[in-house]
Amino acid sequence: MSKEKAVKKKKLRAVSDNIDVKNQFKGWLYLSPALILLIIFSFYPLLNTFRMAFLNGYNGLAIVGGEKFTIGIENFKTVINYVDFKLCLKNTLLLCVITVPISTTLALLIAVALNSIKPLQKFLQTVFFLPYVTNSIAIGMVFNAMFTRVGLGDLIQTQGIINNIIGIFGIEPINFVNVGSSWGANMFVVCTYIIWNAIPFKILVLLGGLQNVNKQYYEAAKIDGTSKIRTFFRITIPLVSPMLAYVIITSFIGGFKEYSSIVGIFGDGMGPGGNGQMNTLVGYVYNMLPKSNSGNASAASLILFGIILIVTAINGYVSKKKVHY
């Protein structure tokens, strides 16, 4: 009997192994279209970017003519020594440092407010989410129109919608985006746009987290007579900290890749009159591509990748210490 049982067990194992193999084959078969697309459009371009970055003076047109390139770090030196590299890096870092904390804080406060009301909650969620599904270039053009000073002879004379509003309070008109405007005024407009455009998605994520918080914590806080401010800092923030960590990390990644908002406001000149004073690292990459300077563009992309990797690693380390799962 023991031999028969052993034979049956072997047969069952063989059948089970065959089923596992078939299931694995089906799984890989179903995944293959997505994997093929990822390899072609994601993994290969990524590896090719690394290759081009370390080929000195790599030029997409020259390589067609059979020119050979040596391996080195000249492309990185060219990018770092670029006359406006510090400006691009400063703009990129400031956009992240300014917009991420402000937009996250505002989104959290709005999410808390929306979570505490019931009438028109769904309607207000839709209203706040509208900017997220609107084309960013179109929104940038609207912001440009709001801050632009227009003068067409005697027909049209306006300082712009924003200047008209602040003029009510006796403030002199400010040149926000027209030719001759200062870097600070341009940065203010871009940051305002990014914050306004980033808030909707953050509200959606944080509101979902707030709605999953156990209401017993708030009831216990009420019984203890805890103030609303203390409840916010001691209960709300710790319990939604995983969502906050996710929002902050993705916001920093998106901030470092900022480009479309500046193009929407100032055009591809990346500044008033095309002076490029609002250019970013991503803008530098796009500027290099039409000139066939793929090596420099790839090197700049890797520098940006390294910065994002470091910031993400820091965020991840802080999240392990501060986030309550």
Characterization of the model:
- It is a single chain.
- The protein is mainly α.
- It folds into two domains: 2-53; 74-322, MetI-like fold (Orthogonal Bundle), CATH 1.10.3720.
- The chain is built from 14 helices and two strands; from the N terminus they run ααααααββαααααααα.
- The chain has helices at residues 2-53, 60-64, 74-80, 85-116, 121-129, 136-147, 161-167, 183-211, 215-223, 228-239, 241-256, 260-266, 281-288, 294-322, and strands spanning 150-152, 156-158.
- It has a two-stranded antiparallel sheet with strand order 1-2.
- α3 crosses α14 (294-322) and α4 packs parallel to α8.
- The longest helix is centred in the first third of the chain and has 52 residues, at 2-53.
- The protein is flat.
- The relative contact order is 0.12.
